[in-house]
Amino acid sequence: MTTSDPAAAALGAREDSSGRAVHAPDAPDAPRTAQERTGTRARLAATASDLDAADPLRTHRDAFVGAETSLVYFDGNSLGRPLRASVDRLAAFARDEWGGRLIRGWDESWMQLPFDIGDTLGRAAIGAAAGQTVIGDSTTVLLYKLVRAAFDAAVAADPARVEIVVDRDNFPTDRYLVEGIADERGGRVRWVDVDLAGGVSADLLQGAVGPATGVVLLSHVAYRSGYLADAATLTRIAHDAGALVVWDLCHSAGSVPVEADAWDFDLAVGCTYKYLNGGPGSPAFAYVAARLQDRLAQPIQGWMGAADVFAMGPEYRPAAGMRRFLSGTPPIVGMLAMQDTLALLEDVGIEAVRDKSIALTEFAVQVSDELLTPLGVVVASPRDPQTRGGHVTLSHPAMRAVTARLWTQDVIPDYRDPGGLRIGLSPLSTSFAETLAGLAAVAEAVRAES
């Protein structure tokens, strides 16, 4: 394939039988003069106003700190805005529970908090029945625990199952962990090559799994492109091959419906500082299907995962259920803020959030087609909303400099190589008018940097 568009070439755009790039927009001829651009923006502004007026979730935007300002926030898929209720919750905790109850807090509620919040998260965000989700360590540590536990269980059941399947464009932590675990446990990595503007399809996974597969590690929403995997189908393919599956839900929990139980998940990990608004570095969650909990041995044996936490015995005996997947003292302060978003999710429902997410990303693609396509910007995310998560990636060779310029103007996207500017649209805190304002700023910045 040849292309005159270096951004499309860098992102591996494909051509169909007509010779047209699959990810090229179907937009009408876009305006090029200043007068035409002004007219187009006025029309898009009217559309944004209509969409905001019809949005059933619009009133929830005011519940977020900073939403009343002119700052455009396109990075909710990296760090969500805090809820005003969380500010009050954190202050009250420091004053009344930490300051007032002190060490008594552990006996009164803190020891149980990782499981109580985990059950709420499971119910509100990932379709998990009680007793299968816990708030614990960082995403990296929990992924290590679950992938390593799954690998050891697979090899114990069948010594030939020494392969861990992962795609080459999975989030760096996922790839690094898999390589480390394979080296540590005498396994090997089976790499899946994917289109950087897409992700792992059923055909790709079918070609990668087999009698040697022990574990498959997949992201439900691809961090770069926003590709939304068919989790139920991919799980079935891995199970048919005799493997266990670990799902990374970091870019889907709180934005895209997940049905961990109904889709027959084995294990899953997700972070809570993105769409769940838990705050910088808030602890991740782990899901382990009930049928596997007593079969898996997690590798970081700490006192909090012991059968009798306060026995302080001479040897480790794992607790039953999800407690065995804890290691050290739970980060109580770090898990407080997410409770407010989980309560809001339970109130509005994840399906309503998904509907708003689709509407926002569809509008972002429309605006990009009309304002950014004439500048050489390519939509490097799936155009079908059914295969796209909550963010859109826009590709252009100047996007690194564009991102730096935008940050000085209080327009906050993020950048991912090669040449990708990510537009992360949190449905509960982002308006259509904010989306248009930010993308108009992107267009001006691309002009300035090109």
Report on the structure:
It is a single chain. This protein has about 450 residues and is α/β, with parallel strands linked by helices. It contains 13 helices and 13 strands. It has helices spanning about 5-10, 35-55, 85-100, 105-110, 115-125, 140-155, 170-185, 200-210, 230-240, 340-350, 350-370, 400-410, 430-450; strands spanning about 70-75, 135, 165, 190, 215-220, 245-250, 265-270, 285-290, 380, 390-395, 410, 415, 420-425. It has a seven-stranded mixed beta sheet, with helices on both faces. Helix 2 runs antiparallel to helix 11 and helix 2 (about 35-55) runs antiparallel to helix 13. It is globular. The protein starts with 5 loop residues before the first helix and ends with a helix.
Characteristic terms for this protein:
seven-stranded mixed beta sheet; 450 residues; alpha/beta; four-stranded antiparallel beta sheet
Assign a percent range to the helix content: 25-40%
Provide a count of the helices: 13
* CA(first)-CA(last) distance: 25 Å
Neighbour order of strands in the largest sheet = 2-8-7-6-5-3-4
Shape: globular
Portion in strands = 5-15%
SS content category: alpha/beta
Q: Report mean pLDDT, rounded to a whole number.
A: 92
Strand-and-helix sequence, N→C?
Answer: HHEHHHEHEHEHEHEEEHHEEHEEEH
Major β-sheet profile: 7 strands, mixed
Low-confidence stretches: 1-31
Assembly form of the protein: single chain
Radius of gyration: 23 Å
Tally of strands:
13
Describe, in short, the structure shown.
By secondary structure, the chain is of the alpha/beta class. Helices cover 39% and strands 12% of the residues.
